[in-house]
Design a protein that fits this description.
Lantibiotic dehydratase N-terminal domain-containing protein, Lant_deHydtase_N, alpha+beta, two-stranded antiparallel sheet, extended
């Protein structure tokens, strides 16, 4: 049985919210100001980086927002639907502003160097890095294994760091 093992590395997580962002005034959801709510959606959607982050996190939500902020509102959209959309986007904004959970493009992680004095440098040269999960890798491998012409060109390497778990052979991906 493996127990917890300390590592000699540290990561920090931080929000990607730009310092200069000013949120528009929160909408009054007590009434039924659908026109005002759509204007709030339009202003929030225009915040630098927000639309991209929401689109990565929830393409369906992003499509709903784009429909609402179109020049003409979709026929049949009711007050309840627009209110829910505003509430959902407000939750995303609050998460982005105050909870640095690495979720899509809302926050990220960076390595930390441990030293004798605390110093933090935050810059603007951040780059999103996408790493496929196990299911994505498995789908790609299965697709490649079905194509003989591709399979003949694949370089095969051994890795002695793998181990058996159940009926599978587990090999951790390199993070180089």
């Amino acid at each position: 049985m493996r127990t917890y093992e300390a590592m000699d590395s540290v990561l920090i997580r931080a929000t990607t919210l730009p310092e200069s962002v000013e949120f528009p005034c929160w909408p009054d959801l007590a009434g039924s100001d659908v026109v005002g709510w759509r204007e709030w959606l339009r202003r929030v959607w225009g915040i630098s980086g927000f639309a991209d982050a929401v689109t990565v996190a929830s393409p369906v939500l992003a499509a709903q927002v784009r429909r609402q902020i179109a020049t003409r509102p979709p026929a049949g959209d009711d007050e309840v639907r627009v209110r829910r959309l505003v509430e959902t986007l407000a939750r995303y904004l609050l998460r982005w502003a105050g909870r640095a959970t690495p979720f899509g493009l809302f926050a990220g992680v960076a390595p930390v160097e441990v030293g004798g004095r605390a110093v933090a440098r935050v810059g603007g040269r951040h780059q999103p890095v996408f790493r496929p999960d196990g299911e994505c890798v498995d789908r790609q491998v299965r697709r490649i294994e079905q194509r003989l012409e591709t399979l003949r060109t694949v370089e095969v390497r051994t890795n002695s760091l793998g181990f058996a778990r159940g009926g599978s052979w587990i090999v951790h991906a390199s993070l180089d």
